[in-house]
Amino acid sequence: MTPPSLALDRLCLSHFRxxxxxxxxxxxxxxxxxxxxxxxxxxxxxxxxxxxxGRGLRRAAAEDMARRPEAIGWKITAxxxxxxxxxxxxxxxxxxGRLVEIDxxxxxxxxxxxxxxxxxxxPAMDRLWMESAAERRRFLDRIALSLMPDHGDAAIGYExxxxxxxxLLRDGVRDQAWYEAIEAQMAASGARLGANRRAALARIAAAxxxxxxxxxxxxxxxxxxxxxxxxxxxxxxxRPRDMAAGRSLLGPHRDDLGATYAAKGVxxxxxxxxxxxxxxISLVLANAHAVAEDFGAPPLxxxxxxxxxxxxGRRAALYDAVTALGAQAWLTGTxxxxxxxxxxxxxxxxxxxxxxxxxxxxx
Length: 363
Prior knowledge:
This protein is an alpha/beta fold. Helices cover 37% and strands 25% of the residues. It folds into two domains: 1-117 and 297-363, Rossmann fold (3-Layer(aba) Sandwich); 131-296, RecF/RecN/SMC, N-terminal domain (Glutathione S-transferase Yfyf (Class Pi), Chain A, domain 2).
């Protein structure tokens, strides 16, 4: 088969969680990773997730990813074939943070979003529709980031200004000039944040029908004005109330993502566990189609333990959708039998663990 135009052709890990040393040569096909619980499968795909902006699929601190007991620092090296050519990416721990190099040159984390696009689905996301709005905002922002790499700058700018404003409110500061300056920053980045979120939802709505998986109707639930000037006015008008509360009570940081099982007209939070999982898969596939159209290649997909919650028919449908898309998907599961429908279409890797050290072998 012809490899997709966005794929890892090599992945090397050094002292990353349970993986003391790993050097994998890859061929562009999906990667089916199987082994017992605790063997190090999720550790492996977590390393892949760090090739995108942000803190990865576990949102872990850099020091928590170091292999114990050595704790000497970790390194991820990846060879990436992308629409604009091949890139060498290196990410390594540096004190409490991490450093990124792309093609031998230091780069900000945000630059990763310009050379690669990643999406993931993990067991922790199964309760997305039952969790707090913060988790759904994070999910929506990952969608937006996959389509608009600069979305991360808007999010960081807004969060920084929000923290400053909240500090002023808690301290009872009444200097209007301070508020005007900070609220101007909040309004500028907040308006971009909201616009990007709405644009991302429009792109998902325009994606092809998900086939075997139920479509979800999505909506941004927000009390924040869309225009920058209106948002600044709202912050100004809300100062007395916010000062009494000690925090900002209006703005994009309070947005929520509403979802409805389209065919049934039922809110996602009222659907069965199986339906909620199917809706998530549907959204990830729609997101992947949108990325493929905009970026020129489907994203790398991480589907952690997804097969265990699907019957044989839907597993086959998912694998068919992934291969039809041409995406290099990284799938994990406890047994090889979960991936039999991918035989001949995927690279199979067995993960074992002995004495706290993970080992990976081709099957």
